[in-house]
Amino acid sequence: MAVLTPEQEASVRTQFAPGGQSADAKPKVTEGKVELPPTLSVKELAEYLDVKTVDIIKELMKNGVMANINQQIDFDTAYLVAGSFGITATPMAMDSAIAEEVVGEGEATQVKLMTRSELFSVDGESPENLKTRPPVVAVMGHVDHGKTSLLDAIRETKVAVGEAGGITQSIGAYVVEENGRRIVFLDTPGHEAFTAMRARGAQVTDVAVLVVAADDGVMPQTIEAISHVKAAQVPIVVAINKIDKEGANPDRVKQGLSEQGLIPEDWGGQTVMVPVSAKQKTGISELLEMILLVADLQDLKANPAKLAAGTVIDAHLEKGRGAVATVLVQSGTLHIGDNLVVGHIFGKVRALLDDRGRKMKDAGPATPAVVTGLPDVPTAGDIFQVVSSEKVARTIAGQRAEQYRVATLAQTRRVTLADLSAQVGKGAVKDLNLVLKADSNGSVEALKGSLLKIQDPQVQIKIVFEGVGPVTESDILLAAVSNALVIAFNVKPDALGQKAAEREKVDIRSYDVVYNVTNDIERAIKGLYEPTFVQIWEGRAEVLTPIKIPKLGIIAGSRVQEGKITSGSTAKLLRDNKPIHEGQITGLKRFKDDVKEVVAGLECGIRIDGYQDFQEGDVIESYQVKQA
Ligand code: GDP
Fold this sequence. Notes:
The structure is a single chain. By secondary structure, this protein is an alpha+beta fold. It folds into five domains: 33-91, Arc Repressor Mutant, subunit A (Orthogonal Bundle), CATH 1.10.10; 132-159 and 168-301, P-loop containing nucleotide triphosphate hydrolases (Rossmann fold, 3-Layer(aba) Sandwich); 309-409, Beta Barrel (Elongation Factor Tu (Ef-tu), domain 3), CATH 2.40.30.10; 428-528, 3-Layer(aba) Sandwich (Rossmann fold), CATH 3.40.50; 533-627, Translation factors (Elongation Factor Tu (Ef-tu), domain 3). Helices cover 28% and strands 33% of the residues. The strands form nine sheets. An eight-stranded antiparallel β-sheet has the order 19-18-24-15-16-23-20-21. Strands 9-10-8-11-12-13 form a six-stranded mixed β-sheet, with helices on both faces. It is globular, with a radius of gyration of 27 Å. The protein binds guanosine-5'-diphosphate. Residues 141, 143-149, 189, 241-242, 244-245, 277-279 line the site of guanosine-5'-diphosphate (GDP).
């Protein structure tokens, strides 16, 4: 355990003391496992483990601890006790325990544990404190059905050109007005972002707009989006897009959606469907009116008079500004100078900006706001909350950092990529722990996605921590205690981080290409790691169609999506994300001409040595092999 001052320790103990939670609210033991908070009373532990309090006391006595039922014990002790009942205790996920401050009598300040839904619930609020709040909308649907175009069309139609501030860079959400009422749009479209946030426990969306192209109909990702939205119990408004197109057939879309259980209103069902054209900007007002109508049925309310709480939508590091986080206030009002806690980060709100880059003094419920002043970059999907003093903020943050450490203390040995192979050979490594640091949440997600796809019968990849920003001392300490490698993607260690890495002998691997990360790790896991050759990734192309060329055979008619493809480099052909062939690029054509390279955005024909059986949707990754 970290050393706390007696004052901090007392404060932590009162903060995490039971605060009127009923026994029923406690998660029960499932399959011999239970999640426990960092400190709890003997009585609470009995409730968590579903055993008699007296049996807990007996067990503690056996271990030389004399305790009464109200005695507070720490996680480590609780872990041992749980173990004696055959139950494995794990620390409660950092954010599943949200603290709400309750100011007690006199000097005593208590903080009780709450779940996210309790934090944002308006149950129990007196009705006069509740004000109607704008709905928060996410846009989903199949690729190319026009999600981005629709978000752009709404923004362009509803934000007057030339308005003070104008449209600035996207902050992850924007606000529009329809008939004098506000609607908040999250502008990262797609159910992946929605689901990633939900996986972290965040629930910010009130209405989902499902975009279906009228010329294409219901497609696989349409169905996927529907199931994610249904699982989240969020109402759907369908935007039947591209009605301007020849071949547009709204009835076919309605038919397809009916088969998925979304019956249009004009067919006697419940689902609102609005024909729109993102291209011609028609149907936009009708869509917004329908969103408001559906939102009204939910009676969305919040109390603006409370200390603010909400969710981080996006965050990154910026030169000169430090950590910049877009948050969505979901309850209460956020002010400049507020003491903010997000996960294990705390700080004072230095400045607040709205979605058009204008300064704000405060931000009420359902307002997206750019916050600066945090010392570190939080993660999208994290809950933030405001507490009354810096001391409370520091203690909660400290307690959560401690939980991180407890969670990873079990592992002890250190590992480097170079000796991993040897250890794998001896069967010594079972888990490969990684700490991921990258330049943006997007990179973190991409990296994580690719790494977790690596399958190996002997070694399992575990990501013990992921975050945005430079590799800091705390990352290194975490890596040291959890025997993890640090992957630094487009970021460097800061000075203290570098020193700590040398001192703790933690291996920091720096990369700027996802492929190289996965490739290195994959090879290491397979016991093949051999650092003398490096593969330098060049680019990626998607195969649009196979093209038959007399004498040459079949080449891949493709579009370069990222980087560039060069003649002579090595190509890896992937189908459904699985490599199916590797060979040299022996020909590259633009129209009829042979070319040396083709850059992102352009179409080309790619000939790969020893392969002709291309299919639409195949991916060609190209890279050069160089000696390190
Ligand atoms: P996303 O992948 O769902 O975000 O789709 P995009 O917004 O990138 O749109 C895919 C393609 O469809 C682009 O070429 C758009 O120009 C086009 N598109 C989007 N909306 C419309 C529309 O209402 N009418 C027509 N004709 N084309 C559209």
